[in-house]
Structure formats: C-alpha cells, structure tokens
Amino acid sequence: MLHSKQFYTWLKPLGICAAFFCVTTAFAQTEETSNPPETPVESSTTAADNAQDESNTPTTTSSILDAFPSAPSGYKRHTIHLPIGNYEDNLKIELLAGKVEETDCNPAHYVGKIEEKILEGWGYSYYQLSDLQGPVSTKMACPDNALSLKFVPVQSQGSLLQYNSNLPVVVYLPDGLELRWRTWVATPYNTAYSN
Predict the structure, then answer these.
(1) What element of type H or E holds 25?
(2) Could you tell me the residue range of the domain that residue 163 belongs to?
(3) Higher per-residue pLDDT: 73 or 44
(4) Percent of the chain clearing pLDDT 70 (strictly above)
(5) If you average pLDDT over residues 139-164, what whole number do you get?
(6) For 167-172, what is the mean pLDDT?
C-alpha cells in the first residue's frame, strides 16, 4: 500500500508536465536555414526602385542566425526555435538525427558523435554531427523479407542539451539527414534511503 501511495504522489505532477509540454512543443517550428527561400520581386518594381528603397531604409540589427557560420561542404544547417517553457531548468531537449530508409524487420541505426562548438566572439553553442557510420543492424532472419520505410536514427553521445528558449539550437548535419527533436521533463526529486 505504501508503494502505491508513493507512486501516485509523483504520477499526477508528471502527467501535468507531460501534457503541458505536448501542447507547447506542438507550436515549435523547425526550419532548415541552409537554403532560405528567395523572395519574389513584384513585376511593378524595377531593380533601380529596389536599390533606392534599400538605400532609404534604416539598417536593422542582424538576426542572431547571421552570426553562425554557413554550412560546410557536404552539410546542411538545421535550426530549432524552442517555445518559451515554464521552469526551463527542469527541461532538456534531445536531438535525434537520422533518415527515412527502407529496412527489413531488423532494428537499424547509425552511429555518430554530436560535437558542441563555441561561436567565436559570441560564446553561443552550436552542434555538428561527425564520424557518421552505418547503418548498423541486427542479422535476424525476417520471415517475409519485406522492406518498409522507417526512420533510422543516429545514436550519438551529446544529444541531450539544456533547454533555452532565448537562443536557437543550430545543428549541422551531413547531407541526406533530417533533424527531429523532443523535450524531456524532470520529475520531482526523490530522496534515496541510506542503509
């Protein structure tokens, strides 16, 4: 009876936190910024008009993303804008790189390393996936040998990051990989009993 009572005391706050973050992460936007879309030019304006308009507009502060380096050859830059969360010290964000591939019944994954790098002069962190190997899978015999499309993730160290909605999460991945992410919520502290 004591164990079930302890179970229910932390289950309710955990359920509330999980529901809150399911709702807040639904509003988050992930964008790929390596090839920003071109803005169409209206047919009624000329290049001279556009140049004159640009010279008359006051200079705006550059976006924080402009401070980050462009993607190296063979890589693409991915950006995550996190929603503002309550008690962000209790949150973590997990990066999950991978690609959708045809696989059989065997579990498969890639292996890589997410390295944290510091932006010179700013102190901001960004991340780059390196040492990509795979895919690796088990070798079980599949009864029907059927292939299906599945997301094959990259298992890597360094993929669990501190949540900070004030800064974008900038990740450089090799071409062909996509970036998925999810939020982790800390449960209330428990006290360990000493013997």
Answers:
(1) helix 2-26
(2) 2-35+66-185
(3) 73
(4) 68
(5) 89
(6) 94
Residue at 152 is within a domain: yes
* pTM of model > 0.85: no
Domains: count for the chain? 1
56 in a structural domain = no
- What CATH number is given to the structural domain containing 79? 2.60.40.550
Give the model's pLDDT for residue 195.
85
Is residue 48 one of the residues assigned to a domain?
A: no
